[in-house]
């Protein structure tokens, strides 16, 4: 990358960051602009040259970089540095980085606790600590979890790619009530964004996925029922991260008990 960045380049990078999830400029000197946000903990160091833009990430979570590498090419074999040729490409990379930083573990839990505290303030003092508060916490958590999965899967079913938001459900692999803590309940890797028919079957342990992402069906489902349930041979997850496998193992054990 070139050593000198002119004022116009700096202004363009700062505005692109502001419009795509990095609203704060921590530094704009030398050959780089350092971008950050109050909504997540990732930082982006952006440089410019005649070939485009370079972006070095300081990710909020280790899970971020592998997810970005699904869609963006790294620079010269360095997994934490990306090179994009145009401003729209830089905007797309920053936007995906910011959204994933908010959806992936750690930040999602912080946002949940903040939202719960605000929701609980609206409950009468007499109702706090009761079933009413428990239901409020669960409702807020499930909303946050759905938002995280919509972000992580790009608003499309993890299997079919259907992008009709109204038909998509946030399916836990390890159910909400059986999770050890909020980190598990809100973990975007603890389940999948599925169309309603697949969600219903996955939720009742009538389907599961193996460690390569292929759909498994219970022997309780007859072969004649599968087409009507929207299931056909070869269905598989669009991708599968290593962080999914722990939760999938738990789900498959319950699935096999029913099979």
Commentary on this structure:
- Pfam families: HNH_2.
- InterPro entries: HNH_nuc.
- This is HNH nuclease domain-containing protein.
- It comes from Thauera phenylacetica B4P.
- There is one protein chain.
- This protein has two domains: 97 residues; 135 residues, no CATH class.
- It is globular and about 65 Å long.
- The chain has 259 residues and is an alpha+beta fold.
- Helix 1 runs parallel beside helix 3 and helix 3 packs antiparallel against helix 5.
- A six-stranded antiparallel beta sheet has the order 1-2-3-4-6-5. It has a two-stranded antiparallel ribbon with strand order 7-8.
- The mean pLDDT is 89.
- It is built from eight helices and ten strands.
Output the keywords.
259 residues, alpha+beta, two-stranded antiparallel ribbon, 10 strands, globular, HNH nuclease domain-containing protein
Quick overview:
The protein has 259 residues and is an alpha+beta fold. The chain has helices at 7-19, 64-68, 87-103, 107-120, 131-152, 182-185, 196-203, 244-258, and strands at residues 24-29, 32-36, 43-49, 52-58, 74-75, 78-84, 168-172, 191-195, 207-209, 215-217. The chain contains 8 helices and 10 strands.
Low-pLDDT stretches are none
Class of secondary structure makeup: alpha+beta
- Compute the separation of the termini in Å: 58 Å
Percentage of residues in strands: 15-25%
How many domains in all?
A: 2
Mean pLDDT: 89
Number of helices: 8
What is the rounded Rg?
Answer: 21 Å
Largest sheet: 6 strands, antiparallel
Globular, elongated, flat, extended or rod-shaped: what is the shape? globular
Domain HNH nuclease: 157-210
Pfam family, one: HNH_2
Protein name: HNH nuclease domain-containing protein
């Amino acid at each position: 990358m070139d050593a000198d960045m002119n004022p116009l380049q700096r202004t363009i990078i700062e505005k692109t960051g502001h419009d795509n999830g990095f609203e704060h400029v921590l530094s704009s000197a030398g050959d780089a602009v350092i971008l950050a946000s109050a909504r997540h903990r990732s930082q982006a160091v952006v440089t410019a040259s005649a070939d485009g833009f370079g972006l070095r990430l300081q990710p909020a979570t280790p899970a971020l970089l592998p997810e970005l590498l699904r869609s963006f090419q790294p620079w010269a074999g360095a997994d934490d540095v990306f090179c994009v040729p145009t401003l729209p490409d830089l905007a797309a990379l920053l936007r995906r980085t910011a959204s994933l930083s908010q959806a992936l573990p750690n930040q999602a839990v912080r946002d949940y606790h903040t939202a719960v505290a605000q929701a609980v303030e609206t409950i009468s003092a007499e109702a706090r600590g009761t079933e009413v508060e428990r239901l409020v916490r669960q409702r807020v958590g499930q909303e946050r979890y759905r938002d995280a999965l919509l972000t992580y899967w790009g608003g499309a079913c993890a299997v079919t790619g259907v992008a009709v938001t109204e038909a998509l459900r946030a399916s836990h692999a390890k159910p909400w009530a059986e999770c050890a803590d909020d980190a598990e309940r809100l973990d975007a890797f603890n389940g999948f964004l599925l169309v309603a028919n697949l969600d219903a079957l996955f939720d009742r342990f009538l389907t599961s996925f193996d460690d390569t992402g292929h759909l498994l069906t219970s022997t309780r489902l007859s072969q004649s029922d599968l087409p009507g349930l929207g299931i056909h041979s070869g269905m598989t997850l669009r991708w599968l991260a290593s962080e999914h496998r722990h939760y999938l193992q738990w789900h498959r054990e319950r699935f096999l008990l029913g099979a």
